[in-house]
Task: structure prediction
Amino acid sequence: MKVRRPARSLSWVAAGIAAIVALPVIAIFWIAFASGDETWRHVMVNVVPRATGRTVRLLLFTGLVTCFFGILTAWLVASFEFPFRRLFSAILVLPLAIPSYLAAYAFGEFLDFTGPVQTGYRALFGFQTSREYWFPDIRSLGGAVLVLSSVLYPYVYLACRSMFLMQGRAAADVARTLGAGPLKVFLRVQIPMARPAIMIGLTLVMMETLNDIGAVEFLGVNTLTFSIYDTWLNRGSLIGAAQIASVMLCVVAVLIFVERAARRSQRFTSNKTTALVNDGARPRLPAVRAWCATLFCALPIAIGFAIPVSVLGGFALSRLENFADSRLLNALWHSIVVSSAAALAAVALGFLLAYAARAERSTPTTVAGRIASLGYGVPGTVLAIGVLIPLASFDNAIDGFLRAQFGISTGLLLSGTGFAIVYACTVRFMTMAEGTLDAGFHKLSPHLDMAARTLGRSRNQTLRSVLLPNMRPAIMTAALFVFIETMKELSATILLRPFNFNTLATLVYEDASRARIEDSSVAAMIIIAAGLIPVLFVSRSLDRDGELHLRED
Result:
């Protein structure tokens, strides 16, 4: 009985963490369905249909564009040899460092009437005013698709590249020996085998599209996410916002269900040895096709990374004195504090979940882990409402009790502070921390635990002296990822921040709302520089894996 007691305690810990993650979602449905029918009728008739239509169109077109560039670039770098292939294989992930709202602000300046594109167009054809020519408006649904797909396609690229390297190459070689050409092999062999990876990448793209608030608002596309923001802040209806959020959660649930159903129906085995042996034998494309492949791979990098960095970087270089601006320094300090607290909380809770799964392989811990991993699928605006409701209820209960008993008003202890932002970011990014830590635990042999117990160490002593030292790299990696993602987070932060409290993301958002993007360019470049750290980590891993494959050949 004494041996089983710690396992039961770990199950309760995992269940408690799952409850922390599930509480915001439960709160949303509770307030949405506890209101009267009149509010529901107004939301379902006047808000949801139009916002849902725009959201579906945005998801559809963004998904198509990201699949086009993500699948084709992955296929090219994995299957053929052409100039700069190895370089492109690593740097095609760079647009992930650009938050979508920064890309929107940069494209707004780049394609504006006074921007370099229209200025050059007028100079080339001799136009003087905008009435003399037609130019596509970036502030439109098409503009939103361009912006979002340019920074989100790497999700599809990463998933498909790994699949093509591990499975598609070996099967493609077999198909070629049977007389199939490259295009036929791609369409009939590699694409069907890559469907699970495509669905994973596409689901991530759609989740990020749903989560976006800065880009869609700036570009004038009123999605469900923007409707939540508008209903809550501009119309003062928290109940209406919760009802829209509940509809949005249903959309998220449908996306997750479709993705898992698609993966369940498409399972293939991988012959790793064959894939590695053939990795160094990519067919070299003819000269013209090779340079076409080079240009095609360079296009999404130029659009999704080079243009935003050049626009915002150019503004920042002309405003270097802003590094000493008090607004920037305060926002940077707030970002560091909030991001550090969220990283600490997410890593601590994620570590407990991963350790519980390692120490006790049972149904309760498995279910708790799956519930805790759902936070990333909840858009930030939805999560903000779900976090605010229980925290405000707690604050009001404490304040009411102390007023009645002691005549003391405590105010907003949690919901009026940065704690709300930390809670929301912890729930949203715990999946990232738990996944990294779980992967770290899987690299440690379970025999380590048993050997330590055999030598007389208790479970806690084994954890402190054996597992924690070996898990230090995974812990640092998980903390870094959560820290940077929290620093970039806008959708939840903009709704939960206290008065006169800015992070780098909200500072950029405020200046962009006032058409002063140049003034926030330094803050934008700090965000991009921070976002490059995990992206370069992934890029280095991809390059190292490619070198390993070649050496093993």
Q: What stands out?
A: Confidence is low (pLDDT under 50) at residues 1-7, 270-279, 547-553. Residues 37-79 form the longest helix (43 residues). The radius of gyration is 25 Å. The chain is about 75% helix and 0% strand.
